[in-house]
Write a structure and sequence with these properties.
eight-stranded parallel sheet; elongated; about 55% helix; alpha/beta; Rossmann fold; six-stranded parallel sheet
């Protein structure tokens, strides 16, 4: 006869509780006759065999043994039997809860802990274990309440203090978390896990040296603690001690080869060292060990982007997003990656632009400069990014500058080598008035040495190589050197180090040149601008006060060499006759808005071509495809390979008109064109980055090439391409203005920016808060203005 196994086992258990052991045994053996390995039946017989005078104590010990052996299912079955016999034993419910946690049955575990607490409200272990289950369900605030109760009942409960610290850390309440870890360690000095987690909290708090010490203590107590070695590596990387960080990751991997986090973290450090291929290999290993490691997929995508493997990079971002839909940074980087590939078949929709980095977690602000022409949203993203990266840093107060014969200026960047920023600023270093200013450079980049870096070294008073120093140490160094004004030449661009300024490197701190937008940082006092890039009505979209120069904010080197080589159109792949529209911007700046216009221009101007920069093969293929879909022969797109700057400037002579992009204008690229004698046509947008070319054109007295609507932009471009005399007249004006207007007068520019520095310094010396400052045209120094 068939029997219902569950019913039979329940009946047997009930008979056993009633003392009808013979009947219970018969039922158990009937079950085992059909299913010899049935655990519940075997456990039931084991229970029946226990001595009658001590069944509970022995059975409870058997239950603990099963739990300790990780046999959670058997433990739950035995607990159920024992609870039927001893329903008011709180310890049984507590152990049952722990077994449910082991099985991943968290709601059932909480029910068991609640029963234990109802039976014995002072059961500290049950309160603490309930907190663990709640934390696993991400009910962190409730978990902390349970830990608090456990500690109130048992103040020396080290594990509860430790778990409370972990929960507080998850909520970002780092000071309280550190106190909880300290309490756990005070009660149990050899608590290696508490030392290690304390190190993590200290690292998140920005106290990197203390974090390393905490990890060292955990490792001393538990040398085989792989996770502590890995976490030590994270803190060392933040301190820029990259070789030591990698050694820590190596040790973690040696101790625990399947520790995916160690492989992923080593990949980050290797990328910092420029070892991209090795970094990819580490991410691949981390993903093989833990396929759902979303951060490893995202970081792998970052390195693939560095390696110009854009299609693979985009795929990795998509995987990261699929695994973690809330990963706003991966979502924003995917948008940027698609822009770099000119993939417009999968564009960002407006709602996405309205939320990423604004209502989501922080995202890299630079990503959106060419995607979203909205200064207000640029500011919101920057503020959130700075808060996430630097919110934990307790900065030194901004004290008034100390009196000195000369104002000490510190320029900070990683780009003091053959880089676009150096091509613009090198002559300024040489033009500074050394009777009034002492110039320091703080270089935290690893590129060079090369001719541009040597030029900077020769031009300034002191060149500090600080790449291996932490942000705090660099800020301390700047203060020790008495820097009065610290100038961030990076902003939110690649390899930025905002922590230097968060630690307050100088009494006055300025955002300048590298990042065309607001830093969003309260610790940056000013931004260098002009009334075109930041008109007065737009100042509300910048966290800084505006140091507004009289012409253009952008410095230029009026001694840049243009090669004597006279290129022929043929050797550049251009037609011998026909109008050459040109845009040497990076391809990610090109959007359908301007590209539609460019294609219409090609359609209307017979024999014309569009000369673009050859950036990457995906962009080239997609731009050709986009031309075809707009009924333009793709062969009318000519792609220029990169070449040394003097030759690149010389080849501009073969173009007729530079067509600017909209959301992100040509910046250095526009200066290149104008310096080489090529007119630039632009359209003003709303944000700083969309108004730079307009600033340059006003400074070179060609305002008629600055438009405010797409329709005017298209109309003027067509008029110029259709009227040889008019384009010739524009080129003649540019040639005449090139060396007679302010744009390429580095000496005059130096006097204006120095005046801005002196005015900001004067306010700081008088204890006044930063305020908007307009530098008048013709000003040379503040002493004349005050007089």
């Amino acid at each position: 006869m068939k029997i219902n196994i569950d019913q039979a086992l329940r009946k047997a258990g009930s008979l056993a509780v009633k003392g009808q052991q013979a009947e219970a045994e018969a039922l158990y053996r009937e079950v085992l006759g059909r299913f010899p390995n049935n655990k519940r039946a075997l456990d039931g017989l084991r229970e029946l065999a226990l001595p009658a005078h001590e069944p509970y104590a022995t059975s409870a010990q058997a239950l603990v043994t099963l739990y300790n052996q990780g046999r959670f299912g058997e433990a739950i079955d035995l607990a159920r039997l024992l609870i039927e016999r001893h329903p008011r034993e709180a310890d049984l419910h507590n152990i049952a809860g722990a077994a449910h946690v082991g099985m991943g049955r968290l709601p059932a575990a909480i029910e068991s802990y609640d029963r234990a607490i109802r039976l014995r409200p002072d059961h500290a272990d049950a309160h603490s274990n309930r907190g663990i289950a709640l934390r696993a369900l991400d009910r962190v605030a409730e978990a902390i309440t349970s830990y608090d109760m456990a500690i109130r009942l048992k103040p020396d409960f080290a594990a509860a203090h430790y778990n409370r610290g972990s929960a507080l850390q998850a909520l970002g309440r780092l000071d309280e978390a550190i106190v909880s870890y300290d309490n756990a360690i005070r009660l149990k000095p050899d608590y290696a896990e508490a030392h290690a987690n304390r190190g993590n909290a200290l690292r998140e708090h920005g106290r990197m040296e203390d974090a390393v010490e905490a990890c060292d203590r955990a490792i001393w107590l538990k040398p085989g603690f792989a996770e502590a070695h890995s976490n030590r590596g994270i803190a060392l990387r933040e301190l820029k001690r990259l070789d030591e960080a990698i050694a820590s990751y190596d040790m973690a991997i040696r101790l625990k080869p399947d520790l995916a986090e160690a492989h992923a973290n080593r990949g980050i450090a290797l990328r910092d060292l420029g070892c991209q291929e090795e970094a990819v290999a580490d991410y691949d290993r981390a993903i093989a060990l833990k396929p759902d490691h979303a951060a490893a997929h995202a970081n792998r995508a970052n390195v693939l982007q560095d390696l110009q493997r854009f299609d693979e990079s985009a795929d990795s971002y998509r995987t990261a997003i699929a695994l973690d839909p809330d990963n706003a940074e991966a979502r924003s980087q995917l948008l940027y990656q698609q822009a770099r590939m000119c993939r417009w078949d999968d564009p960002a929709d407006p709602p996405e632009l309205a939320v990423l980095g604004i209502t989501t977690r922080a995202v890299t602000p630079f990503t959106f400069l060419a995607i979203d022409d909205d200064a207000r949203r640029h500011l919101l993203r920057a503020r959130k990014w700075v808060e996430e990266k630097c919110g934990h840093i307790q900065a030194m107060p901004a004290t008034p500058p100390a009196p000195a014969p000369r104002i000490r200026i510190g320029y900070f960047s990683s780009d003091f080598y053959n880089h676009a920023t150096m091509y613009l600023i090198a002559k300024l270093f040489e033009a500074h008035d050394r009777s009034r200013f002492e110039i320091h450079v703080f270089s935290y980049g690893t590129s060079g040495p090369d001719e541009m870096q040597q030029r900077a070294i020769d031009a300034v008073d002191v060149f500090h190589h600080v790449a291996t120093l932490s942000d705090r140490v660099i800020a301390d160094l700047a203060r020790d050197k008495g820097i009065d004004i610290a100038i961030d030449l990076k902003g939110h661009t690649k390899d930025t180090r905002p922590g230097i300024f968060a630690h307050r490197a100088a009494p006055v701190q300025i955002n300048y040149l590298g990042y065309p937008g607001s830093s969003g940082a309260e610790f940056i006092d000013y931004i260098i601008a002009d009334d075109v890039v930041i008109p007065p009505h737009a100042r509300c979209h910048y966290s800084e006060k505006i140091l507004s120069l009289p012409f253009s904010y952008q410095v230029n080197d009026d001694g840049r060499a243009i090669a004597d080589r006279l290129f022929t159109r043929a050797e550049l792949g251009l037609p011998e006759r026909g109008f050459v529209f040109c845009s040497f911007n990076n391809n990610y700046k090109i959007t359908p808005a301007e590209y539609d216009i460019w294609m219409r221009l090609l359609s209307k101007v017979d024999g014309s071509v569009l000369w673009l920069l050859s950036d990457n093969r995906w962009a080239e293929a997609n731009l050709r495809k986009a031309a075809l879909t707009r009924d333009v022969d793709p062969d009318r797109l000519i792609f220029a390979e990169r070449m040394p700057l003097p030759e690149h400037l010389a080849r501009h002579r073969c173009a007729d008109l530079f067509l600017d992009s909209f959301a992100c204008n040509a910046h250095t690229t526009a200066s290149d064109a104008l310096w080489a004698g090529l007119p630039v046509l632009t359209k003003l947008g709303e944000s700083f980055t969309a108004r730079v070319a307009g600033s340059l054109l006003h400074a070179i007295d060609l305002p008629d090439l600055v438009t405010e609507t797409a329709a005017d932009y298209e109309r003027i471009a067509l008029d110029l391409a259709s009227d040889p005399d008019r384009i010739a007249a524009i080129k003649a004006r540019l040639t005449a203005n090139r060396l007679t207007t302010p744009l390429f007068d580095t000496g005059q520019y130096a006097r204006h920016i120095e005046c801005a520095f002196e005015m900001a310094h004067d306010r700081a010396c008088r204890g006044l808060q930063p305020d908007h400052i307009n530098v008048p045209a013709g000003a040379s120094d503040i002493r004349r203005l005050v007089a």
